[in-house]
Amino acid sequence: MxxxxxxxxxxxxxxxxxxxxxxxxxxxxxxxxxCTVGDYDLELHPGCGPDGLFAxxxxxxxxxxxxxAPPNDTGKRATLAKGQxxxxxxxxxxxxxxxxxxxxxxxVASVAACAGNHLCEMYGDxxxxxxxxxxxxxxATLGAPQxxxxxxxxxxxxxxxxLFSNGL
Length: 168
Known about the structure:
Elements: H1 15-22, E1 25-28, E2 33-37, E3 40-44, E4 53-57, E5 63-66, E6 76-80, E7 85-94, E8 97-104, H2 118-122, E9 128-130, E10 140-141, E11 147-148, E12 153-157, E13 161-163
Antiparallel strand pairs: 1-2, 2-3, 3-7, 4-7, 4-13, 5-6, 6-9, 7-8, 8-12, 10-11
């Protein structure tokens, strides 16, 4: 029987865990400075709990999720449909502007702040087109930023997401 996502927020992951998951590196990991991913400056975000940074796919063609930030990407993981809700765990900046976001398609039911929230009604759980073989298990959290099953994660163009900058 597939697991249903937990409605309790996961603990905020460590800086090192998020850095490893998104494929970044830092000149000074202790002070968390000089962080980069690919050719971009890297900004990490907290987990997908109450202080998380959330977004919805706004591009008509959806949002393609890459396995690494360009130019280091080697393949497409999946494409998220327009309207998919997700948790943003990192931003790859080109100068002052976001160029790429590392996003995970998380079930709306797993985010406590979504209860009765209009953004979570407008953006929600949508179909995912898998470019690799789709996992059999439903999406489940192992504690953000690590998920298993159908919770696909990857780097997508910043232009393909509407960031909920004021939170949920």
